[in-house]
Design a protein that fits this description.
Elements: H1 12-16, H2 22-43, H3 53-71, H4 77-100, H5 102-108, E1 113-117, E2 120-121, H6 123-128, H7 133-142, E3 151-156, E4 162-166
Antiparallel strand pairs: 1-2, 1-3, 3-4
Helix pairs in contact: 2-3, 2-4, 3-4, 4-5
Length: 171
């Protein structure tokens, strides 16, 4: 059994120094961040669950970029670190802009979508987000509501959850 390949000298230059320019790495990471952000914004809402689209995007991109740096597929450690820093930078900038600039928030965050109004299912809105009546009823039951007639309004929120406003009891 030949163990020599497993104990060959470490190529520190290949591990530490990027083969691509740092600017190219930043541009690539920036482009991928915004492409995936737009695609997730268009496609996802209810599939996201409790996490925001930006959160999922950051987790996926950081995992992919870090994986490349770890396995030496295409990035040096420094190149991977620059890519991760770029993705985290844009995630922070988008969140900061959403907080401080209302237009950016409207542009990048999904508005809530009404699914029930005064006890009646809004089937057109449900169809837009591919929410079945059974899926909606599951969400209502989780909040202690067993009948749509007891709901003044129900909304599909930007994070994928369903919020419910109940009809007030007249005792």
């Amino acid at each position: 059994m030949n163990l020599e390949p497993y104990f060959s000298p470490v190529n520190w230059a290949e591990i530490l120094f990027p083969t691509e320019s740092i600017l190219e790495t930043v541009v690539r990471a920036t482009m991928m961040y915004f492409i995936i952000f737009v695609l997730l914004r268009i496609v996802l809402r209810r599939q996201v669950g409790g996490l925001g689209t930006s959160d999922i995007l950051v987790v996926v991109l950081v995992a992919e970029i870090a994986g490349n740096g770890i396995t030496a597929d295409s990035y040096s450690v420094i190149g991977g670190a620059v890519s991760v820093a770029t993705v985290l930078f844009w995630a922070y900038v988008i969140e900061w802009l959403q907080y401080h600039v209302p237009f950016v928030e409207r542009l990048t965050r999904e508005p809530k979508l009404k699914l029930i109004a005064d006890g009646k299912l809004l089937r057109r809105n449900m169809r837009i987000e591919l929410v079945t009546e059974e899926e909606l009823m599951v969400q209502l039951r989780k909040q202690g509501v067993d009948d749509c007639a007891k709901v003044k309004a129900a909304y599909l929120e930007a994070d994928g959850s369903v919020s419910v406003v109940r009809v007030k009891d007249e005792d």
